[in-house]
Design goal:
signal, 4-stranded antiparallel beta sheet, elongated, disordered N terminus, mainly beta, about 30% strand
Length: about 400
């Protein structure tokens, strides 16, 4: 069964064509849809072999400074309304040599493991405090407090995530008769530094026609962010403008776990309103970003700084995990090309390539000169590691005396 997202995508295409004055052209398809997500990761997000995220950062926490770390990330998804000629569904994405990924990477179906996931849920301890907006002080009505003890087991706290900015995925296993992706269990090695996506791309599979397109947009430039403590207790985050960025969003997570008895987890976002939708930490279409900027949910591409309120820093304790996301351009392809006049457009395949750049930094803690911050915003000098007595958010060890 096609998902609502799939139906909305086709409906939007038909509506766009109908809106053209004097046009009665009808469109059908596509039979195949390809989605290619491209990311440039820097700072702690680039550590851990380019895996990104907190896990990658923590695995390399004491292995070297993140200041110059840059990594690339690709996520490939192919969905079709056709069954494979000879099961199982499979395919290959062929690259130019400059991609440094070999001749091709394999696209395979995700493994279905029935009954392998636990249904047990351990109720979180403590509270979640939500803050939002750039500025020296938190705005009215903040923080919004979610007490985990009052949330039913197995349920996401109501009102935690915004439905206004969902994660945008047009290709998924749930909305495709046949589906393959990469990275996967057969091959998961991400592109090395120095890789380039410029040039021809070909996707060949047993679930549809070959897909061919040429990219003229490469990986976005890396983000370089710094944090500086202010005299009023707030923290200023500054970053370099990234070419082709359509907008920025920042967030931090802080707080401390004291002796396993819970505590407060502090979550702040740069959005001027209470918006914690998953799409803000992912890829977003340029048109969506353009709509979110006037609403001050996303910062404009001309902005290169944001002040974390003093209330957030005080509540977060010694350290915060900071993340900055730069949304980027998007390239769209379709075959056959749209015909002129009122001739029906029977679309065989579409391909979408989305770009973003993001970085992660540790705000306020000194890990031997790695991502630390002194009172003037500079990197703190390296010191002999001290005995850790407590843990921060997500189990990250904090410096002695932080608790």
């Amino acid at each position: 069964m096609r998902s609502t997202l799939r139906l909305l995508s086709v409906t939007a295409l038909a509506a766009a064509l109908a809106a053209v004055p004097g046009s009665a052209q009808k469109a059908s398809g596509p039979k195949e849809r390809y989605e290619m997500d491209v990311a440039t990761m820097s700072g702690f997000a680039a550590m851990g072999g380019g895996k990104g995220g907190v896990g990658g950062a923590m695995s390399m926490m004491f292995g070297g400074g993140p200041d110059k770390a840059v990594a690339h990330q690709l996520l490939l998804r192919l969905g079709s309304d056709q069954t494979p000629g000879a099961p199982p569904p499979k395919g290959d994405h062929y690259f130019e040599p400059q991609a440094k990924l070999g001749k091709a990477v394999p696209l395979i179906s995700p493994e279905r493991r029935e009954g392998s996931y636990t249904t047990e849920f351990e109720r979180p301890k403590g509270r979640l405090l939500l803050y939002w907006g750039c500025g020296a002080k938190a705005g009215p009505g903040q923080p919004v407090v979610i007490d985990f003890a009052k949330v039913a087991a197995g349920q996401i706290p109501p009102g935690l995530f915004s439905s206004a900015v969902p994660v945008a995925r047009e290709v998924s296993q749930s909305n495709s008769r046949s589906y393959v992706d990469w990275p996967n269990s057969k091959n998961a090695k991400q592109p090395p530094r120095g890789s380039s996506l410029l040039g021809a791309h070909r996707i060949a599979s047993n679930i549809g026609s070959d897909i061919n397109f040429t990219l003229t947009q490469d990986y976005m430039a890396p983000l370089q962010a710094s944090a500086a403590a202010q005299g009023d207790g707030s923290v200023m985050i500054r970053w370099n403008p990234v070419q082709n960025a359509t907008g920025y969003v920042a967030w931090t997570i802080g707080g401390m776990d004291r002796g396993g008895s819970g505590g407060d987890i502090i979550w702040w976002t740069s959005s001027a309103s209470r918006e914690f939708g998953g799409g803000l930490w992912d890829w977003l279409p340029p048109a969506t970003v353009a709509k979110l900027i006037p609403q001050k949910i996303v910062m404009p591409p001309s902005q290169t700084s944001c002040q974390i309120p003093a209330d957030v820093k005080k509540a977060s304790g010694e350290m915060m995990i900071g993340n900055l996301n730069a949304f980027g351009p998007e390239a769209n392809f379709a075959y056959p090309p749209k015909p002129a006049g009122n001739v029906p457009w029977n679309i065989d395949w579409t391909a979408k390539v989305r770009f973003r750049s993001h970085t992660m930094l540790m705000v306020g803690a000194d890990f031997g000169g790695m991502g630390g911050m002194d009172d003037t915003g500079g990197s703190a000098p390296a010191e002999k590691p001290k005995k850790k007595k407590c843990k921060g958010p997500l189990g990250i060890p904090l410096p002695d005396g932080a608790c």
